[in-house]
Amino acid sequence: MARQKKSSNRSKMVIIVFFVVLLIFSASLISSRNKLVDINSKDVDYIEIVSNKSNNMKNVKDKKDVEKIVKKLNKLRGKQANKDINAEIISYVNVYFVSGNKISFVKTGLTLRVNDIYYNLSGADSKLFDNIVEDFSK
Predict the structure, then answer these.
(1) Half-sphere exposure of 49 (CA within 13 A, CB side)
(2) Residue 78 in contact with residue 34, Cβ under 8 Å?
(3) Would you tell me which of 28, 45, 47, 70 could form a disulfide with 41, CB atoms 3.0–4.6 Å apart?
């Protein structure tokens, strides 16, 4: 009797561990879906932010601010879309790397252009991008 309880408890534990591992794996897979960019903040030289609303341009070189901006840019999600050439350009964020390369983010309405590829953003992601521009262009 005691032996059957031990093996029964062990098999329950194995099943629970299996489902926990499966849950963690699927959550990481789903979270990386529709991600626009994956930027390492250590590779960034500086970030240039241009706001057409307030006609401001600012270069951000402080490492802490660069890390905050990169972290927020990495959170952006969207689905690839067609060109939206009728909308007015609201703001730019250009990320310049130590290697000399650059990634350009151009926002028009709910559409974000990342290096000539257009993405439709949700309202929350659009607000996140607007917050980046507002917070760091002052």
Answers:
(1) 22
(2) yes
(3) 70
DSSP tally for the chain: helices H, then strands E: 3, 7
Model-level pTM?
A: 0.74
Q: pLDDT digits over 8-28, tens only?
A: 778 888 888 988 888 887 776
- Residue keyed to tokens 């879309």: 81
* Residues 35/83, Cβ–Cβ less than 8 Å: no
pLDDT value at 88 more than 60: yes
Is the distance from CB of 78 to CB of 125 less than 8 angstroms?
Answer: yes
H or E element in which residue 31 lies: helix 2-31
Q: Which of 54, 97, 117 is nearest to 106 (CA)?
A: 117
The residue to which tokens 């000399």 are assigned: 100
User: What are 48-64's pLDDT values in tens digits?
Assistant: 998 877 778 888 898 99
